[in-house]
Amino acid sequence: METENGTVVTEFILIGLTQSHAIQLLVFVLSLIFYIIILPGNVFIIITIMSDHGLSAPLYFFLGNLAFLDASYSFIVTPRMLVDIFSEKKVISYKDCITQLFFLHFFGGGEFLLLVVMAFDRYIAICRPLHYSTVMSPRACSVMLLAPWLGGFVHSIIQVVLILRLPFCGPNHVDNFFCDVPQVIKLACTDTFAVELLMIFNSGLLTLVCFLGLLTSYAVILCHVHRSASEGKNKAISTCTTHVIIIFLMFGPAIFIYTRPFTALSVDKVVSFFHTVIFPLLNPVIYTLRNQEVKTSMKRLFIQKIVC
């Protein structure tokens, strides 16, 4: 049945991560472990930061929002993937596919921009400490937080609008376990070269620029810290190192997926699995394990609210 925008296809069939039942079982167990154990951990991080007034610094404010974005991002793909593993026919409607794609890039783009905001926060705190309270005031932090949400929305809506203008008349098999731009575009019944260039510019080039900019900014910060003789030198190095690890985890797979022509490679699904299922849940945990204040506050909250 043909819709108003000329789309004939009303549903897509997800091929999935793999056809091997043994690997599917391994993926299911691994994903479920991460979802059951680490996702509540991320929620606990958010509750800890919200409830502990000692964690009122902008750094922890942004960390709480990072945990929220990561938790929201993990809800987009993982639950459906866990159900689809045991389904013979993995069907997703056209509207659900577009919705999944929108929120995937909305939260993903928002997180990338939030990492830029966090890098700016660390730069001011370490390189301009006398101006920190003025520049990173509560009002300024709230305004800065709007940038990731607004930027993520603009980034995602551009992707969706470009795809909605494409006609889909078959085939309808998406070569992945979720709907994403590279796989969906290839199913369009028209020449998509121009659209692919726009997508690469929108996702790939901006991701690469942000990645290189973040690495440069943290290199400047670490050089400044190395030359200084302040008491908080080790803490600053630990915090910046953690941010750099998270940057590589989030930007590395995104650069691999979106900065090249949308041709299928054998490792695409593996990279997508870690990018959408594993890494988002790990990011706040990695940060927490390297932050003594958050760990201490979480232990105190756990003893007060649960043990006692």
Can you put this structure into words, describing what you see?
This is Olfactory receptor. Keywords: Cell membrane, G-protein coupled receptor, Membrane, Olfaction, Receptor, Sensory transduction, Transducer, Transmembrane, Transmembrane helix. Belongs to the G-protein coupled receptor 1 family. The protein has a single domain, classed as Rhopdopsin 7-helix transmembrane proteins. Helix 1 runs antiparallel to helix 2, helix 2 packs antiparallel against helix 3 (94-127) and helix 5 packs antiparallel against helix 7. Strands 2-1-3 form a 3-stranded mixed sheet. The protein has helices spanning 21-51, 58-84, 94-127, 132-135, 138-164, 181-185, 193-227, 233-258, 268-289, 292-307; strands at 11-14, 91-93, 173-174. By secondary structure, it is mainly alpha-helical. Residues 1-5 have low confidence and may be disordered.
CATH class: Mainly Alpha
Helical content (DSSP H or I, runs of 4+): over 70%
Shape: globular
Give helix and strand order, one letter per element, not per position: EHHEHHHEHHHHH
Task: Supply database-style keywords.
globular, mainly alpha, 3-stranded mixed β-sheet, single chain, 308 residues
Task: Summarize, please.
With 308 residues, the protein is an all-alpha fold. The chain is built from ten helices and three strands; from the N terminus they run βααβαααβααααα.
